[in-house]
Amino acid sequence: MKLIFTLTAGRTGTGFLAQLLQANLPDAVVHHEHLGWRAFGLDTPDLSHLLRFNNEGFTEPVRAFWQRKLSRILELDVPCYAETSHILMKAGLVEALSMLPAGHEVHLIAQRRDWIQTLASYHRRFDLVNLGNRYLWYLDPGYQRRLVDPEPFLELGLHGLRLWYLLEIEVRSAWYRLRSRPPSAPITVHQTWLEQVTTRSGARELLSALGAPPGAIELPPKVNAGQGGIPVTESLLRQLSELVAQLGDFEPDSAARPLLHDGRDPFAPVAPAG
Q1: What is the pTM of this model?
Q2: Which of 14, 95, 100, 181 is the most exposed place for a label (fewest CB within 10 A)?
Q3: What is the number of structural domains in the chain?
Q4: Domain that holds residue 233
């Protein structure tokens, strides 16, 4: 089976991506997110899995969730399964892929979006404003397993917290991609930007890499889940632009490479104290 998942922060076009795959991979079962009340703990990580993974690593309860989820996917017995949820990578998706039996083909789409526009979308949708929102959908700076130090960002207020989260995901994604070393490894990582994949040429490039049949592609309309909410003003965009400019030449790959050099696995399980 061909399996397609994402490495992405959210508010990065995962809804559009799901529609693009659905329209152009005729043999695929495609989901954006499993969010029905029956799905949590079975098809979507529940709060305990997110908290455990980001504090204790890939522990047995997290492993058990993924064993169930992957088994359910493989039982579908279809040529291709795709799920574009941004939640999965924050609960051990990549670690879980090692449990797959031999013979499956895995693709990870590392989808990015202009940082200023992503931060503006977080603002519009009230994202990361409280602990519950961070626990359920994003990440909390108090987690023990972090790749980016949150302290300098927390001094910059809520927008700083959001920027920390975005960079944390960017660095995690880079670490997973650099570690996978395709094509010798069974996982292939495709780097995309929302601004590119929403164009016909960018969509064609991604779909071709995923093995879509040749010919004309169907480009779905852009999906903007961030409509409504708090208005995004020109003043806010200038503020966010100045915030991002403070990063200078920050590069996720450069931030991730030290982990590779010293052989550390930031999400290896460690038994909790007590």
Answers
A1: 0.95
A2: 181
A3: 1
A4: 2-213+225-261
